[in-house]
């Protein structure tokens, strides 16, 4: 009976889930296993945790047309979906976000532009794939996630030779920080004061990526960066 039950069990499906209204969220792969999730609500609870939704996920939609998924059996293997609470489906180009480098072109201002219209800064891409954290012409800052005392800061490499587009930098921070609150809307110093432009960034300094919420003043440096941490060696090399 047990072997027959296993043979008749529906195969697991792999889906990718995006956050409703968040154009920068990279999507999360979720396995739909009907032996594990006996109800659609149980699966939505797992999606809530997987995508780090600020509120409980209660609806899934198809990304292009916003059709609501009603039950587990409606999910198709290899497809993408958008997770939402009780709010309406927000129409965005979830499947073609600007941080994707393939198919991009450069405009006169030096920004690489994808076919979806989103921007990302060459100041970041020109320094990140050098194979060394001390690339010539680059300087480095480190960024904490607002209110997060479990994750170490991530390095933010920038080029001194390319003008920095602030909106594009915030898009890059959104991708790297992956805040529970969604997109990064501002960058703050450790004392909570807000950075208003790229010219204010200091090589080797630490910052905090913040979403729509208020800045949370916590001992980020003391708890997440040991005295001899490698982060303190990320200095500019000319």
Automatic annotation (TrEMBL):
The scientific name of the source species is Mesembrinibis cayennensis
**InterPro entries according to UniProt:** Doublecortin_dom, Doublecortin_dom_sf
Q: Which PROSITE patterns match?
A: DC
Sorted alphabetically, the Gene Ontology cellular component annotations on this record are: microtubule; microtubule organizing center
Doublecortin domain boundaries: 13-95, 143-221
Record GO biological process: intracellular signal transduction
Protein encoded by which gene: Dcdc2b
Chain coiled-coil ranges: none
Protein name listed in UniProt: DCD2B protein
PANTHER family per the UniProt record, alphabetical: DOUBLECORTIN DOMAIN CONTAINING 2, DOUBLECORTIN DOMAIN-CONTAINING PROTEIN 2B
Alphabetical UniProt keywords: Repeat
A Pfam family that the UniProt record links to this protein: DCX
